[in-house]
Design brief:
The chain has 284 residues and is mainly α. 84% of the residues lie in helices and 0% in strands. Helix 5 packs antiparallel against helix 10 and helix 10 runs antiparallel to helix 11. The longest helix has 47 residues.
Length: 284
């Protein structure tokens, strides 16, 4: 168990007089400094998330069967496994796995904010503390995934049969809603582990943040999707899943949580602290 619990090895540290890095320079510095711990928490998160990932896999397996049906018979099985594996890991990176993502996000949030964290104990403690809200998000994810994808399939199939533009508009609206819902996941678990909110407030605030930071959300989502697609195309499905188990989910999720954690700290926590200071000064 030393893989997850031994954090006492001293390192060279950081010069306290060194200039403070910001933005992308800070991100890459933290990525390098936390590389070992990112790998550790990735393996822990992957193992605990296997039941949810299996449900995702079964869902995408049905979709993949339809998508590869037109391919040559000798390639269909491999293409189906490849596509299903890619979609499963991509959804884990972008949406998460419910209560388990509460622990995972707390670790990555503290890395981004350069705050102390114990990997295993804090990981499971945050799951325990936030499992109700995390479970609500996971159930909502299942509902959105099932009904959203089926509704989109209905609209696009109906358009193919009738060329009715209303069906195409319906498909476009649903697709945009699913994209925004994806962006909400960049913030929703951050809110869960940072603030005390009811589930309705949690969803509303996550949607506001998703829309307020739309350009950066689009960029981050595109980067994660494109390079994950590249991984599953240059490697066998088994090889790509091994890489996903070792490090991939952390590497893909860390830029999302780095951006979300710092934007929340600057826009929400920082403003609240300034408001409190101004209130105290006015009372004096």
């Amino acid at each position: 168990m030393g893989l997850f619990f031994n954090y006492n090895k001293p390192g060279p540290g950081i010069d306290k007089n060194a200039p403070k890095k910001k933005g992308i320079f800070l991100y890459f510095e933290l990525l390098w400094r936390k590389l070992g711990k990112l790998i550790q928490v990735n393996m822990l998160y992957f193992l605990v998330s296997i039941p949810v990932m299996f449900i995702y896999y079964l869902f995408f397996l049905n979709i993949a069967q339809g998508l590869v049906s037109g391919a040559p018979a000798e390639h269909q099985a491999n293409m189906m496994v490849q596509l299903t594996s890619f979609l499963t890991i991509l959804l884990v990176c972008l949406w998460g796995t419910g209560p388990i993502s509460c622990g995972f996000t707390f670790i990555l949030r503290n890395f981004a904010r350069e705050e102390h964290v114990w990997l295993a104990s804090d990981f499971f403690e945050k799951i325990k503390q936030n499992w109700k809200q995390g479970l609500c998000v996971l159930i909502l994810d299942f509902v959105m995934l099932f009904f959203g994808s089926n509704a989109m399939y209905f609209y696009i199939r109906y358009y193919g049969q009738t060329h009715n533009m209303l069906a195409l508009y319906g498909f476009a609206v649903l697709a945009i809603m699913m994209v925004i819902y994806t962006f909400m996941h960049f913030y929703i678990y951050q809110f869960i582990v940072t603030f005390e909110n009811k589930i309705g407030t949690l969803i509303k605030n996550s949607m506001l943040m998703a829309l307020a930071n739309l350009p950066m959300n689009v960029l981050l989502c595109a980067v994660v999707t494109i390079i994950s697609f590249f991984l599953f195309n240059v490697m066998t499905p088994l090889g790509a899943m091994i890489v996903s188990f070792v490090c991939w989910i952390s590497f893909m999720r860390f830029p999302l949580d780095f951006y979300a954690a710092r934007i929340i700290k600057r826009k929400l926590i920082g403003e609240q602290e300034r408001h409190n200071e101004e209130t105290e000064e006015s009372e004096i």
